[in-house]
Backbone:
Protein backbone atom coordinates (compact mmCIF):
# COMPACT_ATOMS: atom_id res chain seq x y z
CA UNK A 1 0.00 0.00 0.00
CA UNK A 2 1.21 3.52 -0.78
CA UNK A 3 -0.25 7.01 -0.59
CA UNK A 4 -1.04 7.04 -4.29
CA UNK A 5 -3.25 3.95 -3.96
CA UNK A 6 -5.00 5.51 -0.98
CA UNK A 7 -5.71 8.66 -3.00
CA UNK A 8 -7.15 6.56 -5.79
CA UNK A 9 -9.32 4.61 -3.37
CA UNK A 10 -10.61 7.78 -1.65
CA UNK A 11 -11.54 9.31 -5.01
CA UNK A 12 -13.56 6.21 -6.00
CA UNK A 13 -15.10 5.91 -2.52
CA UNK A 14 -16.22 9.57 -2.58
CA UNK A 15 -17.48 9.53 -6.16
CA UNK A 16 -18.88 5.96 -6.04
CA UNK A 17 -18.23 5.98 -9.74
CA UNK A 18 -15.06 4.81 -11.50
CA UNK A 19 -15.43 7.08 -14.53
CA UNK A 20 -15.93 10.25 -12.47
CA UNK A 21 -13.08 9.27 -10.16
CA UNK A 22 -10.78 8.72 -13.15
CA UNK A 23 -11.63 12.17 -14.51
CA UNK A 24 -11.02 13.71 -11.07
CA UNK A 25 -7.62 12.03 -10.89
CA UNK A 26 -6.77 12.70 -14.54
CA UNK A 27 -6.16 9.00 -14.94
CA UNK A 28 -7.32 6.32 -17.36
CA UNK A 29 -10.21 4.32 -15.92
CA UNK A 30 -8.46 1.02 -16.63
CA UNK A 31 -5.37 2.11 -14.70
CA UNK A 32 -7.54 3.25 -11.80
CA UNK A 33 -9.36 -0.08 -11.70
CA UNK A 34 -6.04 -1.94 -11.74
CA UNK A 35 -4.73 0.08 -8.77
CA UNK A 36 -7.88 -0.59 -6.74
CA UNK A 37 -7.67 -4.34 -7.48
CA UNK A 38 -4.02 -4.33 -6.43
CA UNK A 39 -4.93 -2.62 -3.15
CA UNK A 40 -7.72 -5.10 -2.48
CA UNK A 41 -5.37 -8.00 -3.18
CA UNK A 42 -2.87 -6.64 -0.69
CA UNK A 43 -5.56 -6.21 1.97
CA UNK A 44 -7.04 -9.63 1.30
CA UNK A 45 -10.62 -8.66 0.54
CA UNK A 46 -12.92 -6.34 -1.40
CA UNK A 47 -13.24 -2.66 -0.57
CA UNK A 48 -15.91 -1.93 -3.15
CA UNK A 49 -18.92 -3.81 -4.49
CA UNK A 50 -19.20 -3.14 -8.20
CA UNK A 51 -22.20 -3.62 -10.41
CA UNK A 52 -23.22 -2.30 -13.79
CA UNK A 53 -25.39 0.31 -12.07
CA UNK A 54 -23.48 1.44 -8.97
CA UNK A 55 -20.47 1.14 -6.73
CA UNK A 56 -20.80 0.63 -2.98
CA UNK A 57 -18.34 0.42 -0.12
CA UNK A 58 -17.91 -2.78 1.86
CA UNK A 59 -17.50 -2.54 5.65
CA UNK A 60 -13.75 -2.82 5.10
CA UNK A 61 -13.96 -0.01 2.54
CA UNK A 62 -15.92 2.25 4.93
CA UNK A 63 -13.32 1.67 7.64
CA UNK A 64 -10.42 2.32 5.29
CA UNK A 65 -12.02 5.48 3.89
CA UNK A 66 -12.12 7.11 7.32
CA UNK A 67 -8.52 6.21 8.09
CA UNK A 68 -7.28 7.01 4.59
CA UNK A 69 -8.66 10.55 4.78
CA UNK A 70 -6.78 11.14 8.04
CA UNK A 71 -3.56 9.62 6.69
CA UNK A 72 -3.68 11.69 3.51
CA UNK A 73 -4.41 14.87 5.44
CA UNK A 74 -1.41 14.19 7.68
CA UNK A 75 0.78 13.43 4.67
CA UNK A 76 -0.32 16.57 2.85
CA UNK A 77 0.32 18.69 5.93
CA UNK A 78 3.76 17.16 6.42
CA UNK A 79 4.68 17.82 2.79
CA UNK A 80 3.39 21.38 2.98
CA UNK A 81 5.47 22.10 6.08
CA UNK A 82 8.56 20.42 4.61
CA UNK A 83 8.28 22.40 1.36
CA UNK A 84 7.82 25.62 3.30
CA UNK A 85 10.88 24.87 5.44
CA UNK A 86 12.90 24.03 2.33
CA UNK A 87 11.96 27.44 0.89
CA UNK A 88 12.61 29.13 4.21
CA UNK A 89 8.95 30.06 4.53
CA UNK A 90 8.37 28.34 7.85
CA UNK A 91 10.11 27.92 11.13
CA UNK A 92 10.82 31.03 13.14
CA UNK A 93 12.09 34.55 12.68
CA UNK A 94 13.53 36.22 15.78
CA UNK A 95 13.35 40.01 15.95
CA UNK A 96 15.48 41.78 18.53
CA UNK A 97 15.09 45.32 19.78
CA UNK A 98 17.14 47.57 22.04
CA UNK A 99 14.43 48.98 24.24
CA UNK A 100 10.87 49.18 22.95
CA UNK A 101 10.34 48.15 19.36
CA UNK A 102 8.64 50.91 17.38
CA UNK A 103 5.02 49.77 17.63
CA UNK A 104 3.88 52.08 14.85
CA UNK A 105 6.14 50.15 12.49
CA UNK A 106 6.38 46.70 14.04
CA UNK A 107 2.67 46.01 14.54
CA UNK A 108 1.60 46.59 10.91
CA UNK A 109 4.70 44.81 9.60
CA UNK A 110 3.90 41.74 11.69
CA UNK A 111 0.26 41.79 10.57
CA UNK A 112 1.19 41.85 6.88
CA UNK A 113 4.08 39.41 7.25
CA UNK A 114 2.01 36.89 9.24
CA UNK A 115 -0.80 37.00 6.68
CA UNK A 116 1.70 36.10 3.96
CA UNK A 117 3.54 33.47 5.99
CA UNK A 118 1.14 31.98 8.56
CA UNK A 119 3.51 29.08 9.27
CA UNK A 120 6.38 31.35 10.32
CA UNK A 121 6.57 31.93 14.06
CA UNK A 122 7.85 35.46 14.73
CA UNK A 123 9.49 35.90 18.13
CA UNK A 124 10.36 39.24 19.72
CA UNK A 125 13.43 39.47 21.93
CA UNK A 126 14.39 42.47 24.07
CA UNK A 127 18.08 43.42 24.06
CA UNK A 128 19.88 45.28 26.82
CA UNK A 129 22.82 47.58 26.19
CA UNK A 130 25.31 44.72 26.38
CA UNK A 131 23.62 43.09 23.37
CA UNK A 132 23.76 45.97 20.91
CA UNK A 133 26.31 43.95 18.92
CA UNK A 134 26.41 40.51 20.54
CA UNK A 135 22.66 39.90 20.23
CA UNK A 136 22.96 39.61 16.46
CA UNK A 137 26.52 38.33 16.25
CA UNK A 138 25.74 35.44 18.60
CA UNK A 139 22.56 34.69 16.64
CA UNK A 140 20.12 35.44 19.42
CA UNK A 141 18.11 37.28 16.76
CA UNK A 142 17.89 37.27 12.97
CA UNK A 143 17.08 40.98 12.75
CA UNK A 144 17.19 43.81 15.25
CA UNK A 145 15.71 47.29 15.56
CA UNK A 146 18.64 49.44 16.67
CA UNK A 147 19.72 53.05 16.48
CA UNK A 148 22.67 54.33 14.48
CA UNK A 149 25.59 54.38 14.46
CA UNK A 150 26.05 50.63 13.90
CA UNK A 151 29.36 50.42 12.07
CA UNK A 152 30.04 46.70 12.25
CA UNK A 153 31.58 45.22 9.06
CA UNK A 154 29.63 41.98 9.38
CA UNK A 155 26.28 43.78 9.77
CA UNK A 156 23.99 45.27 7.16
CA UNK A 157 21.76 48.18 8.23
CA UNK A 158 18.59 49.49 6.59
CA UNK A 159 17.52 52.97 7.80
CA UNK A 160 13.81 53.25 8.57
CA UNK A 161 13.13 56.68 10.06
CA UNK A 162 14.66 59.53 12.02
CA UNK A 163 13.31 61.21 15.12
CA UNK A 164 14.47 63.89 17.50
CA UNK A 165 16.48 63.10 20.58
CA UNK A 166 15.59 64.00 24.13
CA UNK A 167 17.75 64.79 27.13
CA UNK A 168 17.03 62.47 30.05
CA UNK A 169 17.52 64.26 33.40
CA UNK A 170 16.62 63.79 37.04
CA UNK A 171 13.34 65.51 37.82
CA UNK A 172 15.19 67.78 40.25
CA UNK A 173 17.75 68.94 37.67
CA UNK A 174 17.80 72.75 37.00
CA UNK A 175 17.20 72.10 33.28
CA UNK A 176 14.32 69.67 33.81
CA UNK A 177 11.63 72.35 33.38
CA UNK A 178 13.00 73.66 30.09
CA UNK A 179 10.92 73.34 26.92
CA UNK A 180 14.05 72.40 25.01
CA UNK A 181 17.76 71.96 25.62
CA UNK A 182 20.78 72.68 23.42
CA UNK A 183 24.10 70.84 23.65
CA UNK A 184 25.72 74.04 24.87
CA UNK A 185 23.46 73.86 27.93
CA UNK A 186 25.05 70.53 28.86
CA UNK A 187 28.69 71.55 28.98
CA UNK A 188 30.22 70.16 32.17
CA UNK A 189 27.35 67.75 32.85
CA UNK A 190 28.11 64.16 33.88
CA UNK A 191 26.58 61.50 31.67
CA UNK A 192 25.41 58.00 32.52
CA UNK A 193 26.75 55.78 29.78
CA UNK A 194 26.76 52.13 28.75
CA UNK A 195 29.19 49.21 29.32
CA UNK A 196 32.54 48.96 27.51
CA UNK A 197 31.20 46.14 25.31
CA UNK A 198 29.03 48.73 23.52
CA UNK A 199 30.94 50.22 20.54
CA UNK A 200 32.58 53.51 21.50
CA UNK A 201 31.24 55.33 18.45
CA UNK A 202 27.71 54.35 19.43
CA UNK A 203 28.25 55.64 22.97
CA UNK A 204 29.88 58.82 21.67
CA UNK A 205 26.81 59.65 19.61
CA UNK A 206 24.54 59.64 22.67
CA UNK A 207 27.22 61.44 24.72
CA UNK A 208 27.07 64.34 22.21
CA UNK A 209 30.80 64.10 21.59
CA UNK A 210 30.55 65.86 18.21
CA UNK A 211 28.28 68.61 19.53
CA UNK A 212 30.32 69.18 22.71
CA UNK A 213 33.70 68.96 20.99
CA UNK A 214 34.86 66.06 23.14
CA UNK A 215 33.74 63.40 25.57
CA UNK A 216 31.95 64.76 28.63
CA UNK A 217 32.50 63.47 32.18
CA UNK A 218 30.83 60.09 32.73
CA UNK A 219 29.53 58.44 35.87
CA UNK A 220 31.46 55.42 37.17
CA UNK A 221 28.11 53.67 37.54
CA UNK A 222 26.97 51.84 34.39
CA UNK A 223 23.47 50.95 33.30
CA UNK A 224 23.39 47.56 31.56
CA UNK A 225 19.64 47.73 30.97
CA UNK A 226 17.25 50.56 30.23
CA UNK A 227 15.72 50.19 33.67
CA UNK A 228 19.10 50.42 35.42
CA UNK A 229 20.06 53.39 33.24
CA UNK A 230 16.84 55.23 34.06
CA UNK A 231 17.21 54.42 37.75
CA UNK A 232 20.75 55.87 37.81
CA UNK A 233 19.61 59.05 36.09
CA UNK A 234 16.58 59.33 38.35
CA UNK A 235 18.70 59.21 41.48
CA UNK A 236 20.99 61.95 40.21
CA UNK A 237 24.06 60.03 38.95
CA UNK A 238 24.04 61.95 35.67
CA UNK A 239 22.13 62.67 32.47
CA UNK A 240 22.06 61.20 28.97
CA UNK A 241 20.37 61.57 25.61
CA UNK A 242 17.94 59.10 24.04
CA UNK A 243 15.56 58.79 21.10
CA UNK A 244 12.15 60.35 21.67
CA UNK A 245 10.70 56.83 21.44
CA UNK A 246 11.99 56.15 24.96
CA UNK A 247 10.00 59.04 26.39
CA UNK A 248 6.80 57.65 24.87
CA UNK A 249 7.26 54.12 26.23
CA UNK A 250 8.83 54.75 29.64
CA UNK A 251 6.93 56.80 32.19
CA UNK A 252 9.68 56.98 34.80
CA UNK A 253 8.54 59.14 37.73
CA UNK A 254 12.03 60.33 38.76
CA UNK A 255 13.16 61.57 35.34
CA UNK A 256 12.18 64.18 32.79
CA UNK A 257 12.54 63.93 29.01
CA UNK A 258 13.27 67.32 27.44
CA UNK A 259 13.55 67.77 23.64
CA UNK A 260 17.11 68.22 22.39
CA UNK A 261 17.63 70.76 19.60
CA UNK A 262 20.66 71.67 17.48
CA UNK A 263 21.86 68.07 17.54
CA UNK A 264 21.81 65.19 15.08
CA UNK A 265 18.56 63.19 15.22
CA UNK A 266 18.30 59.52 16.10
CA UNK A 267 18.02 57.11 13.15
CA UNK A 268 16.24 53.80 13.62
CA UNK A 269 17.71 51.00 11.50
CA UNK A 270 16.88 47.36 10.93
CA UNK A 271 20.10 45.36 11.22
CA UNK A 272 21.03 41.84 10.15
CA UNK A 273 24.17 39.76 9.75
CA UNK A 274 25.65 39.81 6.27
CA UNK A 275 26.16 36.05 6.36
CA UNK A 276 22.56 35.28 7.30
CA UNK A 277 20.88 32.88 4.88
CA UNK A 278 17.32 33.22 6.18
CA UNK A 279 15.39 33.80 2.93
CA UNK A 280 12.66 35.92 4.52
CA UNK A 281 14.89 38.64 5.96
CA UNK A 282 14.81 40.71 2.79
CA UNK A 283 11.02 40.57 2.62
CA UNK A 284 10.65 41.57 6.28
CA UNK A 285 13.14 44.40 5.82
CA UNK A 286 11.38 45.71 2.72
CA UNK A 287 8.04 45.60 4.53
CA UNK A 288 9.53 47.59 7.41
CA UNK A 289 10.80 50.22 4.97
CA UNK A 290 7.42 50.54 3.30
CA UNK A 291 5.45 50.68 6.55
CA UNK A 292 7.83 53.18 8.15
CA UNK A 293 6.92 55.68 5.43
CA UNK A 294 3.32 55.84 6.58
CA UNK A 295 2.96 54.33 10.06
CA UNK A 296 5.49 56.34 12.07
CA UNK A 297 4.50 58.79 14.78
CA UNK A 298 4.25 62.54 14.38
CA UNK A 299 7.65 62.87 16.07
CA UNK A 300 9.48 60.84 13.44
CA UNK A 301 10.04 61.19 9.71
CA UNK A 302 10.92 58.63 7.03
CA UNK A 303 14.64 58.24 6.60
CA UNK A 304 16.15 60.23 3.75
CA UNK A 305 19.75 59.68 2.72
CA UNK A 306 21.94 62.75 3.29
CA UNK A 307 22.35 64.91 0.21
CA UNK A 308 25.81 64.61 -1.34
CA UNK A 309 26.67 67.47 -3.71
CA UNK A 310 27.63 66.38 -7.20
CA UNK A 311 31.30 66.58 -8.07
CA UNK A 312 32.32 69.42 -10.33
Residues:
Amino acid sequence: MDLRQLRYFVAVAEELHFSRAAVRLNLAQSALSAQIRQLEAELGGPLLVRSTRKVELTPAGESLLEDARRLLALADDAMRRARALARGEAGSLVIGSLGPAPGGVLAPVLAIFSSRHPDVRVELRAFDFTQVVSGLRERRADLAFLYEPVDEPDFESTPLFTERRVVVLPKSHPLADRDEIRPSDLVGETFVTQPDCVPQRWRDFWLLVDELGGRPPVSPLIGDTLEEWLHLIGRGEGIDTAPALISRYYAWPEVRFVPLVDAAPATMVLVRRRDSEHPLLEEFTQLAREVSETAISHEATPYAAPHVPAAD
User: Anything to note?
Assistant: The CA atoms of residues 183 and 211 lie 6 Å apart. The chain has eleven helices and eleven strands. The chain has a mean pLDDT of 87. The longest strand covers residues 155-163.
